[in-house]
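Incident log, structure service

09:12 report received: a user says their structure output differs between two submissions of the same chain.
09:20 pulled the input from the user's history:
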Amino acid sequence: MNDDHGSRLNILAIDDAADVLGKISAIAADAGYTCHCAHDAQSAQESIRQSTPDLIISDINLAGHSGVAICEQLKQQIGHADLPVMFLSAAQGPDIIRRANPTGGTYFLRKPFDAAVLVQLIEKSRHVLHLAHH
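09:34 re-ran on a clean worker, output below:
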């Protein structure tokens, strides 16, 4: 593992399932990243007030909310239109990826997800961020 990224990448994970948040957080921590967890729109906004994320990982279908709509709002509020968003979903609908793309969904991962694949996609997001800032 390369130490130059470490906790420099700040991830915001949004999911209404505590076990999924726990899994994302553990995977991120094992890979050397900082991960803040939010279970709804309000806690996601609070997390952003405390620490601006470099990447959002969000479930598409949250209880009572659309993860897509929440991410659109968050990206506008913090002024990062190009902030990478990775969407997760257990839904099997063929339009799920199409719905996420206009929001700026950079990656899509179907639940249940493999830890190694999640880390690979985080690394790809980190590379995109690095290029955008240079």
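09:41 both user submissions now match this output. Likely a transient worker issue. Closing.
09:42 reviewer note: The chain has one domain: 7-132. The longest strand covers residues 105-110.
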